[in-house]
Amino acid sequence: MNIIHVGLLGCGTVGTGVARILMEKEPLISDRVGAVIRLKTVADIDLEKDRGIRFENGMLTKNAFQVVCDPEIDIVIEMIGGEGVAKDLILKAIEHKKPVVTANKALLANHGNALFKAAAQNGVDLAFEASVCGCMPVIKTIRESLVGNRIQSMIGILNGTCNYILSKITNDGSVFEAALAEAQAKGFAEADPTLDVEGHDTAHKLAILSALAYGMEINLPDIYVEGISRITPMDIDFARQFGYTVKLLAISKSLGNAVEARIHPTMIPFENLLSSVNGSVNALTITGDAVGDMMLYGYGAGMMPTASAVISDVVDLARNRISGASRGRIPMLSYQPGRIRKIPIVPIKEIDTHYYFRFAALDQPGVLSKISGVLGNYGISIKSVHQKGRKTNGSVPVVMLSHLAREEYVIKALSEISSLDVVSDTPVLIRIEDEAGQD
């Protein structure tokens, strides 16, 4: 039976899971592939750490470049992370005509166009299923299962940390800081959670997915990103009273010659399946012109779920090697390289959607007319108005839900309202995705 040798770069949490599956399930994988996929060498800066795995003598090394240059290594797995040495190692492996598997979403979102071009020029594949949503087969679904569809939209929960925090605020009434601390204590959030809670991790994933779905170059800088750190229990409670749940959503829509791509806290109705996705899991709804709506659901992070996705890529590359179809059998970015275009992302100011507004208004006559007057001046029509809650420091919360409005005018109106003498705090804005209520 053929033996395909694998080199693993980085043996942290996910890397350890990858090594465990390759070593412990070698017979199972061999039965399914028709060849032995064997872990030959593991490179890591810490050779003494107890990972719960027994590596044979000579398997561990600190010299990662030696691994990618080893002529006996057939497939390289990059689990180092970051955008420095990981990028250099991937390019060196590609230069040595070795296909690469990575879960490095930040690297792909920022440098993917150059990396995929280098892989194509050298006739090797760069596989990345684990870079988006862990064990959920999102990449394979878009690239292979939906190949006969024009993808019309993708809307999803792509960050388990944010979803856990929002679930705690929603279900337990926790404030953001307490929910974040609990997420950190359970290992769902990093010590520095900025990448997650400010939406940047989600943006990395959406940049990759949008490229796959629409045949566009990866375009991270133009994606609008807004995190969850300013979401309060008060706004989540108001949302619930109106029949909505607040989630951090990645929203991507094809507009023909342009694409919407935005990440922000969003109110969605209870009947939307995403509203019931709680805890640290991810979910993505995809709408195609042939299949209609579908949803993928599962763990988006963690040692074994992510390692499972890495192994699926390794097996695909091994099968390509066995069949002799190791060069671009399936386009890495779903479309043939010559058909990938620069498609612009619509600026957030040009988006039309529904809005939730909350104003801290003084409890006196004429307040509502002043606020409504400003909104009306910008063509923003109000669907409903609610004055709820008790007076706090002389102010009461006034909540408004809008009809369809242009973001540019909403921002201008709220800026003007915040300067009114009858408003005591900065207005709160949350966008609403409610297809049933489009007007």
How would you describe the overall organization of this protein?
There is one protein chain. With 439 residues, the chain is of the alpha/beta class. The chain has 3 domains: 3-135 and 303-338, Rossmann fold; 138-299, Dihydrodipicolinate Reductase, domain 2, CATH 3.30.360.10; 352-437, 2-Layer Sandwich (Alpha-Beta Plaits). Helices cover 36% and strands 24% of the residues. It is built from 14 helices and 17 strands. A hairpin with a 3-residue loop joins strand 11 and strand 12. The chain is elongated, with a radius of gyration of 24 Å.
Q: What is the CATH class designation of the largest domain?
A: Alpha Beta
What overall form do the CA principal axes indicate?
elongated
Structural category = alpha/beta
Mean pLDDT, rounded to whole units?
94
What is the number of beta strands?
A: 17
Helix fraction by DSSP (H/I, runs of at least 4): 25-40%
Query: So, CATH architecture of the largest domain?
Result: 3-Layer(aba) Sandwich
Helices and strands in order:
Elements: E1 3-9, H1 13-24, H2 26-33, E2 36-43, E3 60-61, H3 64-69, E4 75-78, H4 85-95, E5 100-102, H5 105-121, E6 126-127, H6 138-145, E7 151-157, H7 160-172, H8 176-185, H9 194-197, H10 200-214, E8 224-225, H11 233-241, E9 244-254, E10 259-269, E11 281-288, E12 292-299, H12 303-323, E13 352-362, H13 367-377, E14 382-387, E15 395-402, E16 405-406, H14 407-418, E17 428-432
Parallel strand pairs: 1-2, 1-4, 2-3, 4-5, 5-6, 8-10, 10-17
Antiparallel strand pairs: 7-9, 7-11, 9-10, 11-12, 13-15, 13-16, 13-17, 14-15
